[in-house]
Amino acid sequence: MTDRIALRGLRAFGYHGVYEHERREGQEFTADVTLHVDTRPAAASDDVLDTVHYGDVAEAVTRIIAGDPVDLIETLCARIAATLFAFERVQAVDVTVHKPDAPITVPFDDVTVTIHRERG
User: What is the CATH number of domain 4-118?
Assistant: First the structure.
C-alpha cells in the first residue's frame, strides 16, 4: 500500500524516562506518525467517514504522550502504535518519538526512536 496520512510535530508534556528527575519534572516530547491507509474510498466519496480523521489521531497520540509514564521512548512508541490500530482503516504505522531534552552530557540536537508496525 502506498497511501499515507502523516502528522508531524505532535507535542505534549510527559513524564517519561529512566531517571527520577525526568519522572518528577517531565519534559516536552514530540511525535511524528505516518498511517498507511487505503485512501481510495475517501477520495471516491469525499467523506471523512471513509478515511482516518487526523484530528482524532492527533488527540489520541498526545493523550498517550501525556499519559502514564514509561521508562523508554521505545515503549512510548509501541503504545502510540497500538493506539493507532484502534482506527480500523489503518493497515500499518510508522511512529517516531523525539526526546530533545534527553539527559545526555554532550551537545546534541535530538534523540529519536522510530518503529514500523503492521496490523497483525
Answer: 3.30.1130.10
